[in-house]
Amino acid sequence: MTELLAFEEVTFGYGPEARPVFECLSLGVESGTATAILGPNGVGKSTLLHLALGWLRARSGRVLLDGRPLGAYPRRSLGRSMSLVPQAERTPFDYSVLDYVLLARAPYLASLAMPGPDDERIAREAIEEVGLGHLCHRAITTLSGGERQNVLVARALAQQPRLMLMDEPTSHLDLAHKVRLIGLVRDRIARGTTVLLTTHEPDVAAAIATHLVLMRDGQICGAGALADVFTSDNLSATYGVPVQIVRVDGRQAVLWT
Amino acid sequence: MPASRRLAAIALILGATVAVSLFVGRYPGPGPGIISPDRLATDDLAQRLVFNLRLPRLLTAVMLGMSLSAAGAVFQQIFANPLVEPGFLGVSQGAAFGASLAIVSLGSAAWLVQGSAAAFAFAGLGFSYFLARRGRFGGAVLRLVFAGIAVSALFSAGVGALKYAADPLSQLPEITFWLLGGLASVTWDQTWSIAPVVVASLFVIYRMRWRLNLLSLDDATAFSMGATPGRERALLLAAAVAATAAVVSVCGMVGWVGLIVPHIARRLFGADARYSVPAALLVGGLFGVLCDDVARTLLAGEIPIGILTSLIGALFFLVIMITYGHPVEQR
């Protein structure tokens, strides 16, 4: 197994004088795996994704994609390699769902080109895949929070990335949509896409991830294969609340006491 | 009808309106002020009037409407805010200050007023950008908005001071007239002096229009799709401001066009900038010509065009808001 994405002793803070969010953080994401970053609110999970994206730059240390620093890639090729599902996104304009998902084709187009029929086909397939085919021509401003989140996932799929970064992808979803999204992500992983996601829901992490990273106070306090890290003691320490893991029919769920 | 056909239809209407407008207007002699094609072929005065006065004025009116509308569309998309207009970021107030300053302290030669207005329009943008870079809070867009508001306020205070200091009999009317806008004094010289800047800027905006959709997203998201938000934003804003500064320097302050025409375009063609930007260009050009036609023909004297754009624009906008839907389904 090779590491698709690697953080090497990364220190990062917002602004030169600000207290660092992370210090000397190292982390590897192997190709074809799904890694969930689990931790309490405000611990820097989203910041970590933005560093992986190359949008934020480390104060020291390196972030590598396929062994090369992110800065060494041309913008467009980085856009073809990874996509981002942001936590929430607001736009005041009435884009149709299709127009919105088509934006994901940008890294495949020359700088002044417009998306063509092939791009439209890919976008439509991605919209079908998240189950919004019937809403293709609806204005995104009229969608519910859950539908919008699925549009963001469709957009990330239409970008056809090797690495998908997902920031709390289930935060607005009801149970049915959550189950559907989990199935979709697992299917993508089975087809070779690598996923790095943040979540504050341990159940979601347990259902999707093959690997787990526990974060607390700017530090990684546990990382490794799901089976090794997903324990009652580890989770209790991460969240600062005593929790218990129960196993039902081979599935794992977290109870708090 | 597909969007491209509808765009072509608006382009035809624009061309026809410009052609008809050439023949309409005040003209000494009998009749209701319409020069017949027969007379144009034989009458020397009519020829000079049409080709040396009306044609440059009409072309400038088209450029005025197109520039303000396209620039408005760019500003609204980039700031993801449908309430901004091209005068934002200190551009309009900078131009007003530059023109007033020239009128009060340099004399009122047209080229001085024009040059000073254009220079201060860019100074307004530059100052806003500089302040935004030095800002220590919020995101890049929020800082730009605040910097633009502050710079506009500074320049408008300056305009107030200049009006106060201006000679109330000679200079003040001229400042007031400039602030209301008008194309009465436009000549071929002025049309040619702004045409290259306007055409080049509008071409940049037209070719980059799909990228505007990307730039209306969060910077991090646009970045994740391979865009370079900072650089692309600066390029598009510079093009929008260059076109705006050029037309404002000749025509004075013309309000409302840049705010409402992009809305009208989006209501007719949907939010996707692939269609809404060309629509804004065409509707804006049409709007500019129609407003100028009214300005020069309705009364015996010229009506300042800024008054008309606000009046007609607001009414037109209300009608569009109430009646027309756009291609995207709403619930």
Question: Brief description of this entry?
Answer:
With 257 residues, chain A is of the alpha/beta class. Chain A has 9 helices and 12 strands.
Rg of chain B: 20 Å
- Give the overall shape of chain B, derived from the CA principal axes: globular
pLDDT under 50 segments of chain A (min length 5)? none
Order of helices and strands of chain B: HHHHHHHHHHHHHH
Measured on Cα atoms, how large is the radius of gyration of chain A? 18 Å
Helix proportion of chain B: over 70%
How large a portion of the residues of chain B is in β-strands, by DSSP E? under 5%
Helix/sheet category of chain B: mainly alpha
User: What fraction of residues of chain A sit in β-strands?
Assistant: 25-35%
Kindly report the greatest chain-chain contact and the residue count on each side.
Answer: A-B, 38 and 34 residues
Termini distance of chain A? Answer: 39 Å
Oligomer: heterodimer
What sequence of helices (H) and strands (E) makes up the elements of chain A?
EEEHEEHEHHHEHEHEEHHEE
What structural class should be given to the helix and strand makeup of chain A? alpha/beta
Roughly what percent helix of chain A?
25-40%
Shape of chain A: globular
What's the β-strand tally of chain B? 0
Instruction: Count every helix of chain A, treating DSSP H or I runs of 4 or more residues as helices.
Output: 9
Strands of chain A, count: 12
Describe what you observe in this structure.
The complex is a heterodimer of chains A (257) and B (331). Helix content of chain A is 33%, strand content 28%. Chain A is of the alpha/beta class. The longest helix of chain A is centred in the last third of the chain and has 16 residues, at 175-190. With 331 residues, chain B is an all-alpha fold. Helix content of chain B is 76%, strand content 0%. Chain B has helices at 3-23, 37-42, 44-78, 91-106, 110-134, 140-165, 171-180, 188-207, 209-215, 219-224, 229-251, 257-269, 273-297, 305-323. The mean pLDDT of chain B is 85. Chain A binds chain B through residues 15, 50, 53-55, 75-80, 82-84, 86, 89-96, 99, 103-104, 106-107, 111-112, 114-115, 137-139, 142, 159, 165, and chain B through 77, 80-82, 136, 207-208, 210-211, 213-214, 216-221, 223-228, 266, 270-272, 274, 326-331.
